[in-house]
Design a protein that fits this description.
homotrimer, mainly alpha, globular
Chain lengths: 223, 223, 223
C-alpha cells in the first residue's frame, strides 16, 4: 500500500481504529453476556467492559487520564455496539457464535492493537512496551469480560488471539523504526492482526499443548 | 435542603463521605468473607479490598497517588469496619444478610458515589466521566470482593446497585452544572443513591431479564 | 550484617531483587499453569503475569510508567523463568509442588517485597503505604495468576504468605525510619520475608480459622 493510499484510508488512523474497536468489542462482549443469560444491565456492563477495559488499561499504563473519561463520544459508541448485539440476538439464535460476532471480534482486535501501538509509541516506551501495550489494549477487554462471566479467560486457551495483536504491534514498531509514517504503520498493524486471526480461525491453527510435549503428565484432570 | 443546612451537615463533605464509606464497606466485605468461612486473614483482606479497591481505582483513573497510600488514617477506618463485622458475626447468625449489613452496604454505596463524583469533578473529566468514576468508586469494591470470593460479581445480577451510584453521580453533576455548591451536590448524590437503593431492596425492583425479551432463547442453562 | 557487607551483597539492591523476583515468579507461575495443563501460550501468559503484575501495579500506584514497559531486559528475565519451568516440568513430576518451586516462590516473595518497599519509600507515601505497596508488589502476581487459573486466590487461604511480605515491608520502613541505609533496609526486608515464609511452610503455621472462633456457624459448606 502506498503512503498516499494509506493517508486516504486512515486520515486519522487513531480515531478510525478507536471507533471501529469500541463498536465491535461492545457488540462481542454483549453477545457473550446474552449467551450466559445475563439481564439487560449485565449485558450492558459486560459489553462496555469489553469495549473499554483494554483502552483504559492502556491509558493507565502510559500515565494519562483515560480517553473514555475525557470524551462523551466514546461511551455513545460503546452503547451503539451493545444495541447492535441486542438487535442481533433477537434475529439470530447464537449471536456470540455467529459470523458477525466472529468478524467483529477479529476486527476489534486489530483496531485496538493499532490504537495501543500508536499510544505506546507516542509515550516513548521500549520495543517490548509497544508490543505489550498493543496486546493489552486488544486482548484486555475480552479477558476482563470472561472474568465478569466467571470463566477462565478465553485468551489463555486460544493460541492465536492475543498473539495476533502482539504480531500486529510488532509490525507497527517495525514500520515506525524503519522510518514509516504512522498511517502506514497503523495499516500494517491492522492488516497483520486481522489477517492472522482470521487465518487461524479458518484453518484451526493452534500451538502444541504442554502435555503433548510430555509436560504435566503426572496428574489426571482434576477440575 | 438549604445550602446553609448542607454546610452544617457536610462541613467537609468528602471527609465525611470517605469515612462513612470506608467503615461501612469494610464491614460488608468482611461479613461476606465470614459467610464463606474464610479465616481471619482472608476476612481482613476481603474487607479491606471492598473498602479500598473502588477509591484506589478512582485515584488511578484521575492520575494521582491513591489517598489510601498517603494517609495512615484510612487503613485504621478499614480495620474498624473489619472489627465490627467480626463482632457482629459473634452476635448474629447470618451477618452478611442482616439488616445492619444491608444498610451499611447501601450507605457505603452512597458515600463512595459521592467521593467519586467529587474527585472526578475536581479532575475535570466529562459528564460521562463523573458518572463513571462515581459508579466505579461505589461499585468497584464489591465487584472485586466477589472476584476474591470466586463468584460472579453481584453487581451484574443486581439491577439497582451500580445503577443507583450512576444516578447519584448524575445528580451530583446536575447540581454542579446548575451552579450549586459542592456540599449541596454531595448531599443530592448521597440521598439519591441511598434512596433508590433502599427502595429497590424494599420493593424488589429489577429490570426485565434478557430472556424475557426473547434473547438467548436457544440454550439450556449450562452453568 | 554490617552495612559494608550489605553494600557488597546488594550493590544496587533494587536491581538484584528485581532480577531475582522476575525469574523466580515467572518460574512459579509457569509451573502452576503446567500443572493445570495449559498450553505453551497459556503457560507463558500465566508465568509472565505472575512475574509482572505485582511490579506493574506498584508502578501504577506510585504514578509512573511501569518499569517493565521502559526496559526490554525485564521481559527477557521473565521468559528465562518460563523456560526454566518448562525445563523442570520435563525432568520432574509435579513441578509446582517441587522444592525448587517452593523455594523460588519464597525467594520471589522476599525479592518483590523489597522492590516494593524501595519504590514506595522513594515515592514518599505513608508508613502504611510502604507496607501496602511491598505486599502488593510481592503478592499481587500470585493472586492474579490464580484468577487467570480460575481459582480463588491462594493468598486468601495461606495465612503466612502476603503477611510475610507485609512484615518484610515493615522491617524496611523501620530500618529507614531509624536512619539505616537503603541496602541495610533491603537486606532486612528480604531476610524477614523469606525467613518467616520458610518457617511457616516448615512448621505448618496458620491463623485460627473464623469458624473456630464461632463465626459463620450457621451455614453448611455450600460450595
Amino acid at each position: 500500500m502506498s503512503p498516499a493510499l494509506g493517508e486516504v484510508l486512515f486520515g486519522d488512523p487513531f480515531a478510525v481504529m478507536n471507533t471501529v474497536g469500541l463498536v465491535a468489542f461492545a457488540l462481542v462482549g454483549s453477545a457473550k453476556a446474552i449467551r450466559e443469560k445475563f439481564d439487560l444491565f449485565g449485558i450492558t456492563v459486560v459489553g462496555l467492559s469489553m469495549a473499554f477495559v483494554g483502552g483504559v488499561t492502556r491509558d493507565i499504563l502510559v500515565n494519562r487520564v483515560p480517553l473514555a473519561l475525557q470524551s462523551s463520544i466514546e461511551i455513545s459508541l460503546g452503547l451503539l455496539g451493545v444495541g447492535l448485539a441486542v438487535g442481533l440476538s433477537i434475529m439470530l439464535d447464537s449471536p456470540d457464535e455467529h459470523l458477525v460476532s466472529v468478524l467483529a471480534d477479529a476486527v476489534g482486535l486489530a483496531a485496538f492493537a493499532t490504537t495501543g501501538a500508536t499510544v505506546a509509541t507516542d509515550a516513548g516506551v521500549s520495543a517490548f512496551g509497544v508490543v505489550a501495550v498493543a496486546t493489552i489494549n486488544a486482548a484486555g477487554g475480552g479477558a476482563f469480560a470472561d472474568i465478569l462471566l466467571d470463566r477462565s479467560p478465553f485468551i489463555l486457551f486460544e493460541d492465536f488471539y492475543a498473539s495476533c495483536a502482539a504480531l500486529g504491534g510488532s509490525a507497527y514498531w517495525l514500520v515506525i523504526t524503519a522510518g514509516g509514517a504512522d498511517s502506514v504503520a497503523s495499516a500494517a498493524c491492522a492488516v497483520v492482526t486481522v489477517g492472522i486471526r482470521l487465518a487461524a480461525i479458518n484453518y484451526g491453527w493452534g500451538l502444541p499443548e504442554a502435555q503433548i510435549l510430555g509436560l504435566a503428565r503426572e496428574k489426571g484432570d482434576d477440575r
